[in-house]
Design brief:
alpha/beta, six-stranded parallel β-sheet, two-stranded antiparallel ribbon, 10 helices, 8 strands
């Protein structure tokens, strides 16, 4: 317990939020009442320890639940149980192996967990009125993250791309030290890389809407393509594949209208190798 207090004081001095996982009712009471942590983390072994889950949920603080060794159905049941008492929950995809081989990390479970745990469960008939609203709220808003037991720095960042909102990573000063977690942990440089990669991935995700950024306007003109005259086109000439082509730059009639222009006539004289603009062919 003294070592926890030392770490707590150090983290506070460094302006870092201090978190600590408990492993029984007594340790969680100490963590809550003596350390007053902002978030409670529950390790994978206790996914089905309903009395402990109820105790921690009753503190009313955000909770993190790791899920190694459990099925999706068991996790669903635990989430529903917790949300009877506390709606603030983040569930972590985890594989309880130290270290975890990359092929067992199962990052693709993250979007599936988000979909399953973020879905409103069917409303029972007895709650089919306004009294159902609090009950329904308990099944919403479950966030999903990744508890990284792999040996690298890439998969934690990749979890962000799949919708993870939080990364848990064991940290050590020396991965060769004796102990079950050191080999699956990261050293200072590894932690730095994970943070940098995760921030870069999150920033790079941007919008889910495919769009043209204002800064692309200039590029769209310079790198884009337009319908261009192959040779001289006289006013009244019929447009055919023999007298138009597609070339850079953009700004003229888009090539998506290439075949629609065939058979129409030029409204003015157009010199060879010249961009054709709207209104010059009708």
């Amino acid at each position: 317990m003294n070592s926890n207090m030392d770490l707590y004081a150090y983290a506070k001095g460094m302006k870092i939020d201090f978190l600590c996982s408990g492993f029984d009712s007594t340790s969680f009471d100490f963590i809550e009442n003596k350390l007053n942590v902002p978030i409670h983390k529950i390790a994978s072994p206790f996914v089905t320890d309903y009395p402990l889950l109820k105790q921690v949920a009753s503190y009313g603080k955000p909770m993190i639940l790791s899920t190694g060794m459990y099925t999706m159905k068991e996790i669903e049941h635990s989430v529903k149980w917790i949300k009877q008492f506390n709606e603030q929950l983040i569930v972590l995809q985890a594989t309880t192996l130290y270290p975890c081989p990359d092929e067992y990390a199962d990052l693709n479970a993250i979007p599936e967990m988000k979909k399953t745990l973020g879905t409103l469960y069917p409303c029972p008939d007895e709650y089919a009125d306004l009294n159902a609203i609090p009950e329904m709220k308990k099944t919403l808003g479950t966030l999903v993250g990744y508890s990284s037991h792999d040996k690298g720095v890439i998969l934690p960042a990749a979890s962000i791309a799949l919708g993870g909102c939080l990364i848990e990573k064991h940290f050590t000063l020396d991965r060769t030290m004796v102990g079950p977690d050191h080999v699956a942990s990261c050293e200072p440089r590894g932690l730095e890389l994970i943070c940098n990669y995760a921030r870069t991935v999150f920033k790079g995700l941007g919008s889910s809407i495919k769009r043209i950024h204002p800064s692309e306007d200039k590029a769209r003109l310079g790198y884009g393509v337009s319908i261009v005259s192959k040779g001289a086109i006289k006013k009244g000439d019929v447009i055919s594949e023999e007298n138009i082509m597609v070339k850079c730059p953009g700004g003229g009639i888009s090539p998506e209208y290439f075949y629609e222009l065939l058979g129409k006539r030029a409204t003015k004289d157009i010199t060879p190798d010249t961009i054709i603009y709207d209104g010059e062919i009708e």
